[in-house]
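Input chain follows. Return structure tokens only.
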Amino acid sequence: MILNQSGKKHDTDKPRWSLLPLGTVAQIVKVLEFGATKYSPDNWKAVPNARVRYYDALMRHVQAWWMGERVDTETGCHHLAHAACCILFLIWLDDEEKA
């Protein structure tokens, strides 16, 4: 057994998940959990005219934040966590259209 030699790991080109700010991501998950409880898990995938509606919701949350309102009154979550959630939905919808 070699104890004084450095080990190797070939992971240079792999995603560095450690770069994610997990506390911030947890805020987005809280928004998702609120929606799953209020509606149902993954309900957002079946919303009619979803691209327009999630874009509108994104902009409402960004505008509320821009005007100085940090927290959504219904959920208690940061408006930007709501906005980030909408962006994730829009990315998913965009990817689904290409599939």
